[in-house]
Design a protein that fits this description.
There is one protein chain. The chain is an alpha+beta fold. The protein has two domains: about 260 residues, L-amino peptidase D-ALA esterase/amidase (4-Layer Sandwich), CATH 3.60.70.12; about 120 residues, Ubiquitin-like (UB roll), CATH 3.10.20. It is globular, with a radius of gyration of 22 Å.
């Protein structure tokens, strides 16, 4: 189940990037579950990673290997992703398995193990099936293809119902700059840096420091602005690769164009995650404005987005506006003046002057709640700060999917 129809886009090739997949049988047979992304020498690579204290062994190793490459003035050469097993909560044995994966891929590809960044997603607390994983590496390398975007997007899925991709092309310095991204995520989504996994590449030439800064900024407005179930994964990672095969992004106008395009790709992928949230039937945009600070706006937005009562009312198409009112009222906001708060459901005013809006009718509210895409606007009447957060409803299927996840 997913909200709306989102087709996988035609992804232009990016000079220097190749993607390969294999059916390694890590959890289930006859499905792509191992992905290799090849990066050219001289590329810049930036990453953001989960802040979960129990972050997975591949997260630790990917961060360490990326740091080693950057300090040496070198480029990571391969991203290695497996699904079906998170290699999280596995202690030192899990770290040794992650190192072994990098060592073997490095041997096969002729690069140092530190030039390989590993990523895993799937069941937590189980050891990687190393024989299956390592035996799939030659197949993944043999299938490397500059047009392998769809196959790679399919190869990183877990409970997702469809592959997720986004692409934007813009003209910079008279040349075409393309930004391609693929991602996965459906449950355990309230990222504390990024979605479960996302890999974004561009042919533009961007130095390491600005690449990192722009990724972090874009992640804040995209993957860090979504929630399905308020759970932060142990394995989150979002990587951005600049191959250096295209124009330099240095002038003020070039930077503006590039960052707008990057944000567009990141937000597109983040919204696709919410639309494909486990059991989701509604895609909900929460716009909070007139807050004193940005953090205050986000606190209100996420308090509403995480409310089980609000989320189940959305699923039932029940215009129980009091649940939204109550969630806003319990958000951590100091000196809240409820008389100044206005809440709209779509174009229908729900709340003003401390209570139900005079012109509100149950019929009008129910009509909006029956839609697949719903916007809730909350104006706090306290300042000029604002934010937008995207979330989904909470259905019976969410419980069923997670009750059966390890079956």
């Amino acid at each position: 189940m997913a909200v709306g129809t989102v087709r996988f886009p035609a992804m232009p090739s990016i000079d220097g990037i190749r993607l390969g997949t294999a059916m390694a049988g890590i959890k289930k047979p006859n499905r792509r579950d191992l992905v290799v992304i090849e990066i050219p020498e001289g590329a810049s690579v930036a990453g953001t990673f989960t802040r979960n204290a129990f972050c997975a062994a591949p997260v630790h190793l990917a961060k360490a290997n990326l740091s080693t490459c950057v300090q040496a003035g070198a480029s990571p050469r391969y991203l290695l992703i497996n699904t079906g097993n998170a290699n999280a909560g596995t202690g030192e044995a899990g770290m040794e398995d992650a190192r072994s994966c990098c060592t073997e891929l490095g041997r096969l590809a002729g690069v140092d193990p530190e030039a390989v960044l590993p990523f895993s997603t799937g069941v937590i607390g189980e050891s990687l099936p190393m024989q299956s994983l390592l035996s799939g590496l030659p197949q993944a390398l043999a299938s490397l293809d500059e047009d392998g975007w769809m196959q790679a997007a399919e190869g990183i899925l877990t409970t997702d119902t469809r592959p997720k991709g986004a692409t934007v092309s813009v003209e910079i310095e008279g040349q075409t700059v393309t930004i391609n991204g693929i991602g996965k995520g459906s449950g355990m989504i309230q990222p504390n840096m990024a979605t479960m996994l996302a890999f974004v590449t561009t042919n533009a030439t961007v130095a390491q420091n600005p690449l990192t800064e722009w990724l972090q900024s874009g992640v804040r407005r995209s993957f860090n602005s979504i929630t399905v179930d308020s759970d932060t994964s142990t394995n989150d990672a979002c990587m951005l690769v600049s191959t250096g095969r295209g124009p330099r992004v240095e002038s003020e106008e070039a930077v503006r164009r590039f960052r707008l395009a990057l944000d567009e790709v990141l937000i597109d992928l983040a919204q696709q995650v919410v639309r494909d949230g486990e059991g989701a039937t509604k895609f909900v945009t929460l716009e909070v404005s007139e807050a004193r600070t940005y953090e205050e706006a986000r606190n209100v937005a996420f308090t509403v987005a995480h409310s089980p009562l609000v989320k189940t009312a959305l699923y039932a198409s029940d215009a129980n506006w009091g649940r939204i009112l109550a969630a806003v009222g319990r958000a951590p906001v100091e000196d809240f003046d409820v008389e100044r708060v206005r809440i709209d459901l779509g174009e229908i005013r729900l709340v003003e002057n401390g209570g139900r809006a005079t012109g509100y009718t149950e019929e009008a509210g129910s009509a909006v709640m029956a839609e697949d895409d719903i916007t809730i606007r909350i104006r706090l009447g306290r300042g000029k700060a604002e934010t937008t957060v995207w979330t989904s409803d909470l259905s019976h299927d969410y419980v069923s999917i997670n009750a059966d996840y390890r079956s």
